[in-house]
Specification:
Structural class: mainly alpha
Number of helices: 7
Largest sheet: 3 strands, mixed
Distance between the termini: 29 Å
Length: 175
């Protein structure tokens, strides 16, 4: 079975910096359109090539990032899009009581990358996003998270938090 046709297993894992894609999906619930928007954002990132002396230098900016995520062939890009659609459809269609883990680890979105080397390092922005989510979750459902490095909850709670005015729509710098 290819990675885009395997059923989604519990828990549904979300890498923290991908929460913003799911929040956007809740506002505009069209998985195919959201996947295409992700491809456009990746291609736009490919146009950014800051020099090493720049404050915002990112080794994953530019063509290297595009090839790592989308690959070098149309087939790899289509496969990436299909995995994104599966992730987004699962998020929208799984029951609200489906278990979810928000983490710093790779998730279904990462698994759609053609190569995925940029997904390997632990990204510091994920910790910031986990803390933001934990704070918003506390305001929305009143539950305090003792260890925000891995948040276990349900899909319904994740959706409620991402739709709440307490969720900060500004992502950390994504790598």
């Amino acid at each position: 079975m290819s990675k885009e046709t395997q059923p989604i297993q519990a828990p549904f894992t979300i890498r923290a910096h991908h929460l913003y894609s799911y929040a956007e999906l809740l506002r505009h619930p069209n998985p195919r359109d959201q996947a295409k928007e992700a491809i456009i954002a990746i291609l736009e990132n490919g146009l950014k090539v800051p020099g090493p002396a720049s404050d915002d230098f990112d080794e994953w900016a530019g063509v290297k990032y595009v090839e790592d995520v989308l690959g070098t062939t149309p087939q790899q890009t289509v496969a990436f899009e299909d995995v994104q659609v599966k992730a987004f459809e699962g998020f929208l269609n799984l029951p609200d009581n489906f278990s979810v883990e928000i983490t710093r680890e790779k998730d279904i979105i990462c698994n759609g990358c053609a190569v995925g080397n940029h997904c390997q390092p632990i990204f510091d922005g994920d910790i910031e996003d986990l803390i933001k989510f934990a704070r918003s979750m506390r305001k929305v459902i009143g539950k305090r998270i003792k260890d925000p490095t891995k948040i276990s909850t349900t899909l319904g709670v994740v959706k409620a938090v991402l739709l709440s005015p307490d969720w900060n729509p500004e992502p950390s710098k994504i790598s």
